[in-house]
Amino acid sequence: MEDKNWKGHIVLFVAYVIFGLNTPISKYILVQGEVSAFALTFYRFAGAALLFWTVSLFVPREQVPKRDVLLLLIASLFGIFINQFSFVVGLSMTSPIDASVITTFVPIITMVLAAIFLKEPITWKKVIGVLIGATGALLLIFHGNTVRFNAGVEGNLFCVLSCVGFAIYLTVFKRLILRYSAVTLMKWMFLFATLCILPFCWKDINRVNYAGLSMDIYGRIAFVVVMSTFVSYLLIPIGQKLLRPTIVSMYNYLQPLVSSLIAVVLGMDVFGWTKGVAALLVFLGVYVVTQSKSRAQLTIND
């Protein structure tokens, strides 16, 4: 594997481990009832936009033509607004476990969309790798979870919408992503996402009793904004430039793995052979997909 591919895997591994931490942390914030899903999503978008625009002052500036600004607006609707807003709203109405189950569908959706929009071949290795990873993720999710939250159909549907939005972003906007740095991409996309969500969450933002929030809640919100949003979305475009969409989407399987490990650390679950097998299947699935050939490789071989 080329060095640049290793870099892609490293940054995606870190980003999706953070995403895995984000699910239980966000759920904890929401169940306290002091901050709504709308308000929390606004904090993510506005906080990340502020951080990315600040960082952009210290890196080389890239000129973005008006046509690409429009494309970035559309990309932000799918990759950030629909993806993150739908997920947080869905998470507020369902369990972290159900939300984790649904994220495992992203690689399947991405594989199909990549075949349609990028003409990437659906090889047997891709299919087998996706199924192996999904098996590991589902085994991990359904085994030994001792903490349950009320789950609802509406919440699950919002999580499905989140997955579809992210899969569309990974595939349809691949060429746009390759043209710009992560900072340039994200400063525009989070700015647009913030403007889009503001009309929906204005009342919820004003309703929060900021003086009454505990330092624990503030700390968790800071983690969601800085780590789960700013850092993760800084790393993901780097991985997208180096790896194919289907491989990028396979890292969604890390989220339930991380959530399960958190449960073990907090004493809510124990690590047994089932979790070991599940973890092995997740990483084996990622490896098998990475061994599949891209369209370019198949063309060369022909």
Describe the protein's architecture and organization.
With 302 residues, the chain is mostly helical. The chain has one domain (3-297). The protein has 14 helices and no strands. It has helices at 3-31, 37-56, 66-93, 96-103, 106-117, 124-142, 153-172, 174-179, 182-207, 215-242, 245-250, 254-265, 273-290, 295-301. Helix 4 (96-103) packs antiparallel against helix 6 (124-142). The model is unreliable at 144-151 and 296-302 (pLDDT under 50).
Q: How would the blueprint of this fold be written?
A:
Blueprint: H1 3-31, H2 37-56, H3 66-93, H4 96-103, H5 106-117, H6 124-142, H7 153-172, H8 174-179, H9 182-207, H10 215-242, H11 245-250, H12 254-265, H13 273-290, H14 295-301
Helix pairs in contact: 1-10, 1-12, 2-3, 2-9, 2-10, 3-7, 3-9, 4-6, 4-7, 5-7, 6-12, 6-13, 9-10
Shape: globular
- Tally the helices: 14
Care to count the β-strands? 0
The rounded Rg comes to: 19 Å
List unreliable stretches of 5+ residues. 144-151, 296-302
- The secondary-structure element order is HHHHHHHHHHHHHH
Judged by helices, strands and strand pairing, the structural class is mainly alpha
Tell me the count of domains.
Answer: 1
Mean pLDDT over the residues: 81
Q: What percent of residues adopt helix (DSSP H or I)?
A: over 70%
* Separation of the first and last Cα atoms: 21 Å
SS strand fraction: under 5%
